[in-house]
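User: Batch of two.

Assistant: Item 1 of 2:
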Amino acid sequence: MLTSALFAFLHHLAAFAMIGALVAELVLFGRPLTVTLARKVQRADMIYGASAGILLVVGLLRVFVFEKGGAYYFSNAAFIAKLSLFVLVALMSIYPTVLFLSWNRQLEAGQAPQISDSQAGRVRRILVLELAGVAAILLLAALMARGIGHLGAAA
């Protein structure tokens, strides 16, 4: 019981770290970018990715080891939608991450990254969509936790 509670805590901690890092990216990603600001964006993106990875691993451990088991969760439409949306948000995050990593040479040379207006707009839109996706994931988690969405009679 204590282990289950600790994994629930880790799951929530990773989720809040992920949300905080994503909000930080959105706030920090402004124009013009300075060397310092670009490094902060990269750091926030690194924390975002690490916390998302931890969230996924801990969440899957909760599903298969510490909670009701995979059969229970995978028979819940809210859980399936939540997991699918998590994957979609992860896929959306690839473009900003690749862009942020492409800045490394410029930053090592002490130069601020140069990004076009279209790149900047695309990144901002993606970050906002990721935040909306995370908000929807939170709604789905609340529904799932209350048994809403169960597909079988054994709810």
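Item 2 of 2:
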Amino acid sequence: MAHFINIVNYFSRWISIVSVFALIGMMLLTSSDVVLRYCGYPIKGTFDIVGLLGTVVIALPIAYTQILRRHVAMEFMASRGPKFVQTIISSIICLLSIGMYALISWQCTLLGTKMWRVGVVSSTIEIPIFPFVYIVAIGCALNCFVHLIDLYKLFANLKGE
């Protein structure tokens, strides 16, 4: 299990770095477009590219943020009562999260495949949209693995005590 945890952690960190470069690209493209628009030469398709890169910036670091525990968490109920009750509440939350992210990943995969077959593209410069929908699916699927690891750790900690 330790090998699986290391793989998920490594991959989560790696795709988070990809999202950092996407954010830098968004910033540079937007800044360049503002300056060039002022000079009379706007960059065609900036709106489309920035919007599509936004999906990368949002979807990819979800799993790594969960690993670092940087998401907003409602711990009021989970921090009350005996350790066993806390574990049950946390495991229910993990299971619900796994179900939700698995459903999102599955539906994004179906939507991406449909967009690929139909040929949906962005409005101004006609970039295919399906790869970005698949990126959301990948980010959510990886977050499912992180929640599975969290669930494993919950029961490992309970068993160890």
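The chain is about 80% helix and 0% strand.
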